[in-house]
Amino acid sequence: MQYKRFSGSDDEISLLGFGAWGIGKTMWIGAEDAESKNALHRAIEKGINFFDSALVYGNGHSERLIGEVEKESKQTLFIASKIPSQKYEWPAKESSSLKNSFPNNHIIQSTEQRCR
After folding, report:
1. Which of 28, 34, 48, 110 sits a CA distance of 20 to 30 A from 100?
2. Cis bond leading into 84, ω under 30°?
3. For residue 3, which of 76, 59, 99 has the smallest C-alpha distance?
């Protein structure tokens, strides 16, 4: 596995990441949780420590699975989680603005929720 040092720290992050859309169970009707957790554990065993998720991947389901596996593995993982537009628009409409779609309080609230 190849790694890159995270800027300003001694932490190294795998250049290969694990995209967690498929383990969310709603938008992508994929694997069962046991299979998903096995895949996550296997990725960690192979050296992957970067995981990409989002609230919309099963309304946080993929994030919860990654969190469970992180605890089980006793490894430090780097988890990126995307914040959806407050309006839940994909793609954004022409009339949408950054201020209305991503107001400060929405970003703070969503970030705090993701960390839990």
Report:
1. 28
2. no
3. 76
* The two three-digit tokens of residue 34, written as one number: 């046991």
DSSP one-letter string for 22-53: GGSSSSS----HHHHHHHHHHHHHTT--EEEE
pLDDT of residue 14: 97
Confidence of residue 56 (pLDDT cuts 50, 70, 90): confident
CA 71 to chain centre: 15
Neighbouring residues of 23: CB distance < 8 A, sequence distance ≥ 6: 30, 31, 33, 36, 39, 40, 57, 58, 61, 62, 65
